[in-house]
Known about the structure:
The chain is mostly helical.
Amino acid sequence: MNRDDLNELVTKKDLEQFKVELKDILNSKLNLTKEFYTPKEFGYKTGIPYSSVIYKLNNGKIKGFQDASNCSWLIYASELERFKDLANENLDEIS
């Protein structure tokens, strides 16, 4: 196997990102809006690492909920907009 063959390999991370992008495309084409995001989806959309998303959820910095203490988190879609607004505010302060 040479270098060109290695460059053509797809990683698991590539496939996971493709899956999220494909869901976004399909949802936008079908005009479906999400009400909640998983921590993985939220992290992908914001660029925040998964472990940091979980940390922020546990400390109340991101609004989400669990059905029980060991269940998966669900993050309100409005949090994505809040993070975008916060990022824009920070950019305005810098410039």
